[in-house]
Amino acid sequence: MDIIGRTIANRYEIISKTGVGGMATVYVARDKVLNRDVAVKVLKDEFTTDDEFVKRFNSEAQAAASLTHANIVSIYDVGNEDGIYYIVMELVRGKTLKQIINEEGALPWKWSVNIAGQIASALEMAHKNNIVHRDIKPHNIIITEDGVAKVTDFGIAKAVSNSTITAFGTTIGSVHYFSPEQAKGGYTDAKSDIYSLGVVMYEMLTGKVPFDADTSVSVALKHMQEDPVPPMEINPNIPKAVNDIILKDNKAHVKNESCIKCGHCVAICPTKAVSTNDYDMDDVIEYNKESFTVDADNLLNFIKFRRSIRNFKSKKIEKEKIEKIIEAGRFTQTSTNSQDVSYTIVIDKLDKLKDLAFESLNKKGEYILNHLTPETEYLKRYATLWTYFYKLYKEDPIKNDKLFFNAPAVIIVASNNELNGALAASKMDLMVDALGLGTFYSGFLQIATNDNNEILDFLHISDNKKIVACMVVGYPNVKYKRTVPRKAADIKWI
Fold first, then answer.
1. pTM of the prediction?
2. How confident is the model at residue 369 (pLDDT cuts 50, 70, 90)?
3. Do domains 7-90 and 94-283 have the same CATH topology?
4. Strand 251-254 and strand 274-276: pairing?
């Protein structure tokens, strides 16, 4: 049916044909009401008598119209006039990604990654709305003149809850971009789109699809049974970190050979389609912003109410609470994702640590007092305290514990990067308070450990690490009624 020159719905004047797909023809039209050019997709005549195809065509509009995203072609209208089933959508000026690859071959890796990121953002929006595209391929991605990627053709998209769509006994989709489950003719979900996106990225980086053969069946079998040639073997200009993202076990799998293993790809993936072989994936939990919130004012007050505790109850700390404190440190950010922070928990042998610490400070104090100079005069006060504390401790270790205050536990935080250790300790500090415990950072204990191999060996601190924080932990034997005042912050706005 030739509809060029015809006005549909007394509104859309068909100007020219712009493309033909498997089940529809796309036209450029003029929206006479809003005075703008639009694209009109019209179902092919041979499908209009097929109720299943008509239903699928209408579902495209219903699904895609609910999606508002910069990287998704917008749907404006849908209708049926005299047997002409149509969808009115955003007219995107540009080329399909397939046209660009055919013209240029392998694309620059930075551009490829940028386009892939835009497509992933579009899919994230669709998947959050329980919509699976099922036909992600370069033909269905338009790159505008400004370099914006637009995903189009949700013609075989449907709500995830519905069964897999088939046409004439075959699974809908383009075989070169099939996920293994599509190739098997099985149920598809959001992970299928992620797999197809991986294929698209492979083609952008290399100029060719990962699997090809003389027949569609052979291509499908390769998706199910074979591993692709690493992109770097085809295009050596690809950075290793990009190449290290491979397809494995139907998931994008990070090999971690050259990346910093930060896990960001795992966290941001909308469909749990990314895993990493370096960590226990059971650690990964879902983030639901609707059910998990932290009120900013309450958090600030929590920080303000935090106090250093030096008066503890004679009560043991439950093991599970200690483990939560360590978890708070373990999940703290570290530079270059080094994760180089270690933790030594001293409970059962705390008396031994006390003896070593008091003795170490006493020796340091005696040395300072016996070798005072104008340059070390400022240390006299501390040296005197240390020797005095030691004397009292020897008289009565329980009554005169001026270093640990009879707390039941000490946590030593060590790292080869002081900032990493400090960040971990600060998060642990908050968890301590959240668990109803209290702590103080013992600077004297840290001084006692300096250059004391006996203490370092006792704490199992390796030579390449430095003690960053000594956290004395226990149940507080004091209750604070209010916050304390602080000087005004020294702030410079530049």
1. 0.56
2. very high
3. no
4. parallel
CATH 1.10.510.10 fits 94-283, yes or no: yes
CATH fold of 296-474 reads NADH Oxidase (3.40.109)
pLDDT category of residue 62 using cuts at 50, 70 and 90: confident
Active site residues: 135
Check whether domain 7-90 has CATH 3.50.50.60, yes or no: no
Domain ranges of the chain: 7-90, 94-283, 296-474
Token pair for residue 367? 């040395």
Provide mean pLDDT across the span 277-303.
80
Spatial distance between the Cα atoms of 363 and 101, rounded to a whole number of angstroms:
74
pLDDT band at 175 (very low <50, low <70, confident <90, very high): confident
- C-alpha 126/C-alpha 148 separation (Å) is 18
